[in-house]
C-alpha cells in the first residue's frame, strides 16, 4: 500500500477471490455474480487505501446501466469510510471521468462495462491527472485489499471519515472540448449519430448540439439517444459490423455528410462516410495526426510525436513522417499507449480499435474529441468524406481474423518457419509481426490472453496480394 492506512484484519472467513472480475486494465463482471454492491463498497475502500487518498477528493460516476446508481453509492460509501471526500458525478461517459480527473486533479472511478452486454458492469479507475490504474499501477493491490475487507466482513471506518457530495461536470467537459476544436466556422454538415442507447446520447447534445452551449453548423440526426443500459436496439459495440448497419442506412437515407457511432461508455468513436461505408480507425488516426502535428508545429514544436499501435496501417507512420512528425510504434492496449504518450510527450495517439488519445486531454482517450477533429477536417473543405478518407487509406487491410487454436505457440512457429528469411523482417513487440522487405505487405499474429484465439491482422498494397497472404497464413495456422 502507498498510504499509512491499516489493512483490514481477516476474521477466519475464506477470502473471496475477485480475480474473475479484476482484469488487466479495469474491473468487469456479471452483476449479482462477480460484482455486487458489497464488493463495490470494498473496492471503494481499497481504492482510497492503496492510492493514499485519505483526506483527498475522490470522484465517482457511472454509465446508464441499471446497476450503476447503486454501485456509485456503494463505492462512495466505502471510499468515504476510509477518509476520502467523495464527489458523485452521476451519469457520465468514461472520457468525462478522465476530463474530471484531469481538470480537478483528483482520482476517480466510473461504473461501466463499455460495450459488454446488459448483465455486465465494471469499474474504470484513474489517478489524479487521469493517469490510468492498471494491474501494473495499483489494480492488483486494490483487488487484494478489497478481498481482505470482504473476508473481514465489513469496511472499517477511519477516525475521521470523509464526506459525500455531488458535482456535475457535463457543461465544463463540453466547454473544454469546444476550446480544443473550434467548429463554429465550418461549412454546414448533416451528422447522423448512433449512440447505441449509451452515454453519447447525453454527451452529443451537450458538446455538438445547443443544449448547453451555442449552436454549431451541425444538423444532428439522433439514433438511439435514449439512455438504456439494456441496449434494446443493438449492442453498443461498433467494432462489430452488424452494429453499424442502422447508422449506415440512416446516413444514406438522410443524405448525411457523415455518421458517428459510439460505444456504450462513449470513449470510442467509429466513422461512416456519406456513402454509408466505414472509414477505418487507421485513416482517422492519420487524419487527426495530421491536424495535431500542424497545430503543434505552429506552436513551435520541431518534431511532434504521434503514437500508433502495431496493428494500425503503415500509412499512419508514413504520413506522420511526411508531415514532419516522429511516429512511435507501441503494443496494443491503452495502458501501454498512455505510458508511452507520457514518456514521449506525444501530441496524439491512435489505435486500430478506435481509441484516440490526446496530450491536451491528459493523454487519455476520448471518442468525442476525435469526432470533433473529423468534423473540423470535413467541414473545413468541400470534398465529401469518402474522398477525404481515401487520402489516408492507400493500403488494403484484412481486419482482425480469429482462429481457435489449442497450441497457439506451435501455430506461430509453423508460420515463422515458412516466412523466415532475408526478405522478411520479424519482430515480437506484441505477438509476432512479419514484414516484407520491399514493403508490399505485413501481418501480425497475436495470441489472446483470455480466449483460445490467435488473431491475424494483415495489410498489403493491393487486394490480390492481401487475399493471397491471408489465405496462405491462415492455412498454416489452422493446419
Automatic annotation (TrEMBL):
Cofactor: Mg(2+)
Keywords assigned by UniProt, alphabetized: Isomerase, Magnesium, Metal-binding, Phosphoprotein
Every Alpha-D-phosphohexomutase alpha/beta/alpha domain range: 21-148, 172-276, 283-394
Keyword Lipid biosynthesis: no
SUPFAM superfamilies registered for this protein in UniProt: Phosphoglucomutase, C-terminal domain, Phosphoglucomutase, first 3 domains
A Pfam family reported for this protein in Swiss-Prot or TrEMBL: PGM_PMM_III
Occurrences of domain Alpha-D-phosphohexomutase C-terminal (ranges): 400-474
Xref: PANTHER family: PHOSPHOMANNOMUTASE
Protein family (similarity comment): Belongs to the phosphohexose mutase family.
Protein's recorded name: Phosphomannomutase/phosphoglucomutase
Naturally occurring in which organism (per UniProt): Sinomonas cellulolyticus
Amino acid at each position: 500500500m502507498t498510504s499509512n492506512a491499516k489493512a483490514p484484519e481477516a476474521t477466519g472467513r475464506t477470502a473471496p477471490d475477485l480475480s474473475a472480475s479484476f482484469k488487466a486494465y479495469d474491473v468487469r463482471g456479471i452483476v449479482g455474480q462477480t460484482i455486487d454492491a458489497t464488493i463495490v463498497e470494498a473496492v471503494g475502500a481499497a481504492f482510497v487505501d492503496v492510492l493514499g487518498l485519505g483526506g483527498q477528493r475522490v470522484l465517482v460516476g457511472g454509465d446508464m446501466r441499471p446497476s450503476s446508481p447503486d454501485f456509485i453509492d456503494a463505492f462512495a460509501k466505502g471510499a468515504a469510510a476510509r477518509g476520502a471526500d467523495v464527489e458523485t458525478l452521476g451519469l457520465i461517459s468514461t472520457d468525462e471521468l478522465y476530463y474530471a480527473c484531469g481538470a480537478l486533479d483528483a482520482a476517480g472511478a466510473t461504473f461501466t462495462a463499455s460495450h459488454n452486454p446488459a448483465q455486465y458492469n465494471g469499474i474504470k479507475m484513474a489517478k489524479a491527472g487521469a493517469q490510468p490504474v492498471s494491474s501494473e499501477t495499483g489494480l492488483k493491490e486494490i483487488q487484494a485489499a478489497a478481498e481482505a475487507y470482504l473476508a473481514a466482513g465489513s469496511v472499517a471506518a477511519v477516525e475521521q471519515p470523509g464526506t459525500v457530495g455531488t458535482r456535475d461536470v457535463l457543461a465544463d467537459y463540453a466547454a473544454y472540448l469546444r476550446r480544443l476544436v473550434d467548429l463554429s466556422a465550418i461549412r454546414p454538415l448533416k451528422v447522423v449519430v448512433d449512440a447505441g442507447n449509451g452515454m453519447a446520447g447525453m454527451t452529443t447534445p451537450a458538446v455538438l448540439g445547443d443544449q448547453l452551449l451555442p449552436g454549431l453548423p451541425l444538423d444532428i440526426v439522433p439514433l438511439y439517444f435514449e439512455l438504456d443500459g439494456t441496449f434494446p436496439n443493438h449492442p453498443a459495440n461498433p467494432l462489430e459490423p452488424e452494429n453499424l448497419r442502422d447508422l449506415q442506412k440512416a446516413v444514406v437515407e438522410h443524405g448525411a455528410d457523415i455518421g458517428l457511432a459510439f460505444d456504450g461508455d462513449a470513449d470510442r468513436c467509429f466513422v461512416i462516410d456519406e456513402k454509408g461505408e466505414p472509414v477505418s480507425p487507421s485513416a482517422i488516426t492519420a487524419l487527426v495526426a495530421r491536424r495535431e502535428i500542424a497545430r503543434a508545429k505552429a506552436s513551435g514544436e520541431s518534431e511532434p510525436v504521434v503514437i500508433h499501435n502495431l496493428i494500425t496501417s503503415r500509412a499512419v507512420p508514413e504520413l506522420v513522417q511526411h508531415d514532419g512528425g516522429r511516429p512511435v510504434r507501441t503494443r496494443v492496449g491503452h495502458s501501454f499507449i498512455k505510458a508511452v504518450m507520457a514518456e514521449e510527450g506525444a501530441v496524439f495517439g491512435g489505435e486500430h480499435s478506435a481509441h484516440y488519445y490526446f496530450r491536451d486531454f491528459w493523454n487519455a482517450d476520448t471518442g468525442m474529441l476525435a469526432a470533433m477533429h473529423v468534423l473540423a477536417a470535413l467541414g473545413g473543405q468541400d470534398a465529401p468524406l469518402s474522398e477525404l478518407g481515401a487520402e489516408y487509406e492507400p493500403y488494403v487491410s484484412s481486419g482482425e481474423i480469429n482462429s481457435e487454436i489449442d497450441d497457439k505457440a506451435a501455430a506461430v512457429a509453423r508460420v515463422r518457419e515458412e516466412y523466415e528469411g532475408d526478405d522478411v523482417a520479424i519482430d515480437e513487440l506484441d505477438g509476432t509481426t512479419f514484414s516484407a522487405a520491399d514493403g508490399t505487405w505485413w501481418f501480425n499474429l497475436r495470441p489472446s490472453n483470455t480466449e483460445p484465439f490467435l488473431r491475424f491482422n494483415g495489410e498489403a498494397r493491393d487486394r490480390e496480394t492481401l487475399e493471397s497472404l491471408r489465405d496462405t497464413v491462415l492455412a498454416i495456422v489452422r493446419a
